[in-house]
Known about the structure:
InterPro entries: Aminotrans_IV, Aminotrans_IV_CS, Aminotransferase-like, B_amino_transII, BCAT-like_C, BCAT-like_N, BCAT_family. This protein has 7 helices and 17 strands. The chain has 324 residues and is of the alpha+beta class. The longest helix is centred in the middle third of the chain and has 16 residues, at 165-180.
Amino acid sequence: xxxxxxxxWAESSVLPYGPLQLSPAAAVLHYGQEIFxxxxxxxxxxxxxxxFRPEANAERMQRSARRxxxxxxxxxxxxxxxxxxxxADEPWVPEPTGEESxxxxxxxxxxxxxxxxxxxxxxxxxxxxxxxxxxFPRGVQPLVVWITDEYAxxxxxxxxxxxxxxxxxxxxxxxxxxxxxGADEVLFLDSETHTGIDELSGMNVFAITxxxxxxxxxxxxSILEGVTRASVLRLxxxxxxxxxxxxxxxxxxxxxxxxxxxxxxxxxxxxAVITPIGSFxxxxxxxxxxxxxxxxxxxxxxxxxxxxxxxxIPDRHGWLTRLV
Length: 324
Ligand code: PMP
């Protein structure tokens, strides 16, 4: 589908997957004016296909669009695009045997041909769909997380709260360094003081204390407002756990891991759902979370979330929207 700022929707269609026609001077290639979203389509046992909280993704895409000087797509058009593509790709939505889904990637970028720094007047919007296997084909495995003391993902007043390609461009080197150091993922600290936990390169972070409090960094403007994060906060509350969005100082968290005050940590996002963090690494050493395995509350939250998504338990919060 193609959208231009002056004309609204110029055309809207489902096309076979293939390369795009783009001018070498398309603004996105030079100035990074691009945003995206990530959702999943889940098949239920009766064959119907559903997605999870798409209105939250639509709203986030609108916020990202405002920050990147792109036009806002209405929630109706956003949902219509997901429905049209999922209907066409319906045979590709996996059977609900494991944790398989159809990943949906809406994205919008500046396609106007010019060299010069200003917002583009012409914008393209597309959605691609791709079958996604379980994130952990051999069962849930705790992550080893590298704490970067060198790179920040986002700065104050920057684009950290937007889901734009540039944020990921700035995280790639840190993530590669994490992998070279033997970790699975990188954790970014806040760029103001370099002391508070922000998030991983594609997931929000939670800690659970021995006395059952569920903690996650507050939305300071430099982390992404994850849909999974919001859902986990709600599910934890439903379980009678005390939840708090607050500044989490990395050094204090590491001390609380050593003292056993914090017993579980996990990362969450659409792709990885809820993933235990088994240990942290940094230049100063390594820290194990709990016994290094998967925490009980983490796994219970993960099961409840996926049970809702696959229609195995009632959708008591009205989080599911039928696509096909
Ligand atoms: N933080 C970042 C940087 C991400 O890329 C993602 C994935 N979209 C998340 C957090 C988690 O967001 P969500 O739960 O909406 O997928």
